[in-house]
Every structure is written in C-alpha cells, then in structure tokens.
Specification:
single chain; alpha/beta; Rossmann fold; 10 strands; about 40% helix; about 10% strand; DUF3631 domain-containing protein; DUF3631
C-alpha cells in the first residue's frame, strides 16, 4: 500500500513505501518504523471471527509431554484436522521424524481430501517448518530423491501427489517414485543403479519418512504404509489463524529446536523399545514409531497415541471393506452364499442379480448397466478366484463359482465380517 504524507505546497508528490511491513497486515508498521506522516495503524478493516483454541489438556510436568503439547497447539492454530485423533497422530509423526535413526520402519503420512481447499497444502506448510530436514519433492526426479537419502535421511514432503499418481498414464511414468516410497518404508531396502562412465553398480538407500498430500486416495501400496489423515473443507464458522511465513516461521523453528533438544538424547532408548500396540502386522510397523514417541513423552500421550492408532486403523479397514475394488465384493458374496444356505456353487447370473439388487451396495451402478460378468471376474481374479462350469438343479451346466474357491480368501480378507450383516461390520463379543 502506498502512503503519501502531507507535503508543502508545490513539493513533488512521491509515494513513500513502508520500511518494515508486518506480514498479513497491509498498511501496518512495526512500532517505530512507520514513515513520517503515516499512521501506526492502517485503515480500519473488519476483524476476522475469533479462532476457537484447541481443547486444553493437562500435559503434566514432563518436558516431552509439554513439548508435544506445544506442537499440537501450533498445528491446531493453523489447520483444522478432521478429529482430535488425527491431530494427535500428526503431532506424534512430526516428532518421530527427529528420531528416524531409531526406527525400523518409516511411516508415511498420507494427507488426502476429496477436493481442493481442504487444508492439505497448509498442513504441509506447517510440517515443512517443524519436521527433521524437510525435502520438498516438487518436480524432483526419483534419481535425485534417492541420491539425497543417506545415513541421515531427510523428511520427504510431496504436495499435489494426485498429479503424480492420479491417472494410469501418469502413474506409469512415476512408477519408480512409487517403488521408492514403498521400499523406503522399511530399513535396509536399497535400489541399485549404475553410475559413472564405467556404469559401476551402486546401491542407494531409500529409508526416509515421507508426507504426501493430494486429492483422493493415493496408491494402495502407499496408503497401506501410511498414517492416513482425511482432510475436510472448513465448515461455516470454523476459523484458523492465517499462516504467514515471515511472521510464523520463527516460532515454528523455535519449536522444532525444542523437539530436537528433547528427542535427540533419547534415540538409543527409542531404538530399544517394543511397545504394546492395539494393532498388528503392517499397521503395527507404521504406528510403532508414533507410539514410542508417546511413551517417551509421558503424560497423557501414551493413552492418546494408542486410542488414535486403534480408531484410525479401524476406520481405514472399514473404508477398505467398503471399497468396491477391495474386499467388499468378497464380503457381499459371502452373505449371498449364507442367505442361500451355503450351496456348493452359484451361477454367475445368480450372483450378479443378488449383487445388483442391494440398494446400499455399489454394484447396481457399476458401469453403465451395473456390474457385468466380466467386471465380476476381474475383481475376483485378484484373489485367485476364477469362474468355471457349475451344475444347477436341472442337471445342466452354466458358468459360475464354487463356494470352495472362496473359503481361503474369506478367511484372509474378511474374517471379521458377519455374513448376516447388511453391511460389513466387525464381530463383537
């Protein structure tokens, strides 16, 4: 904003620019820096609605717990996360990046949303100023990424990941980056490339923590290795503080140094811990670093971490069951066999009619005319199930599926789904 101070009659009218501008406050000046003739406060502007502070929690006297509490408050200051559990998870993930040397697995943080303006990029802005050695990978080649990973790996930050993995054609071009992100989830997974004029084979490390933000889900292989944060657009009345890099970065950097001072001396202790977790398998590998950080911090964090772990993993498992391309089709077919008193086989026509008739299932609207025999065969082939000739009541044969071929996939992919339920649901009790 130009500020024109009063000038004597006949003097030239030259605009005077502010010497020191306060980011986010156009026309305002820091005390003592306003040019002659300019007011300390600029023209009146309507005030933004007040920002609701995050829920106050008692972090206790421990330095680690208080440090994580301060980080949690700063994240909530600029970004509205979808739940308190998601806020706790992001806080613990940031702290875990500063102890990468202690981990056997490097959890990914998948920040996804259904549309633009859900706060994904803003969260990545905050992460950039608080994680260990941030490395933004905008237009960065896979070769440059794995050449940047060494004994002290950076934290990879990938924005607009949907432009990398969105379409099949683009995803094929970035298959090497996806492979790097998959391999880098576990320590001691290398890629081998030839280097130099003599093409000498050389192993490059891939282990590094990474945060990826994008519209829509990322590839399944990445989501399965991630703490998933499903962002939402702010509702009317929800407000956050505007993030201004020049104004807000110093405080975030100070908080980062505080995390380093607390976590650095605990690396050896963190490497030796084997916490009890409410999940198993790959979910346990992904969440273990976050739970260890919580246990080291003390206070309410051990309980908060395990509750976030249990609830967020369960939510993703439910989403996977509801996904038509996942185990949903197996669970729906299991209910059809159960409802028909477990026959030895069903024809393809019978299965398709039952699947399409469920108003809460996606099969009736699958494609132009509902799920086809070819579509069903493609979905089931991923689980090793193929159609064949089956005998029906009139002693003729038609194409269909035998129940025995489903038994092993049912046991592996939907063991907790009760066959009488209208929708997939865990068995309780």
């Amino acid at each position: 904003m130009n500020v024109t101070p009063p000038t004597p009659e006949g003097a030239s009218q030259r605009p005077v620019w502010p010497l020191v501008a306060i980011p986010g406050q156009q026309g305002h000046y820091a005390p003592g820096t306003a040019p002659v003739g300019a007011t300390q406060a600029g023209p009146e502007r309507p005030e933004a609605p007040p920002v609701a502070p995050p829920k106050a929690l008692d972090w206790g006297p421990a330095e680690g717990s208080q440090t994580l509490g301060a980080l949690r408050s700063q994240i909530a200051r600029f970004v509205i996360l979808p739940s308190p559990h998601a806020l706790d998870a992001v806080t613990l993930w940031v702290a875990a990046t500063h102890l990468q040397a202690a981990w056997q697995h490097a959890p990914r943080l998948a920040v996804v949303g259904p549309a633009k303006r859900c706060g994904k990029s803003r969260l990545l802005d905050v992460l950039t100023e608080t994680v260990h050695e941030p490395m933004l990978t905008v237009n960065t080649t896979p070769a440059a990424v794995f050449r940047s990973i060494g004994d002290q790996p950076p934290t990879l930050l990938v924005d607009e990941a949907d432009t990398i993995f969105g379409s099949v054609k683009v995803a094929e071009k970035n298959e090497e980056l996806r492979g790097l992100l998959n391999a880098g989830h576990q320590r001691n997974r290398y890629v081998t490339r030839v280097v130099g004029n003599d093409h000498t084979p050389h192993r490059f490390a891939t282990f590094a923590m990474a945060a990826l933000a994008g519209i829509g889900d990322l590839p399944d292989t990445i989501m399965d290795r991630s703490v998933v944060i499903r962002m939402r657009r702010r509702a009317e009345g929800e407000r956050v503080h505007p993030f201004r890099s020049k104004r807000d970065t110093p405080a975030l950097h100070g908080l980062r140094e505080r995390i380093v001072s607390w976590a650095g001396p605990l690396a050896d202790t963190a490497a030796d811990l084997e916490p009890e977790l409410p999940v198993e398998d790959r979910a346990a590998d992904t969440w273990e670093p976050l739970v260890i950080v919580a246990d080291l911090a003390g206070g309410p964090w051990p309980e908060l971490a395990r509750e976030a772990c249990a609830r967020m993993v369960a939510a993703e498992e439910q989403a996977e069951e509801d996904n038509p391309g996942g185990a949903r089709v197996l669970a729906d077919i299991r209910r059809i066999f159960f409802a028909r008193r477990e026959p030895d086989s069903l024809t393809t026509t019978e299965l398709l009619a039952e699947l399409r008739s469920d108003p809460e299932a996606p099969w009736g609207e699958w494609g132009r005319a509902g799920l086809s025999a070819r579509d069903l065969g493609s979905l089931l082939r991923e689980f090793g199930i193929v159609s064949g000739n089956v005998r029906i009541a009139d002693s003729t044969q038609r194409k269909g599926y035998t129940r025995s071929k489903f038994l092993d996939p049912w046991r592996r992919y939907c063991p907790t789904v009760h066959p009488t339920a209208a929708n997939p649901a865990p068995v309780t009790g």
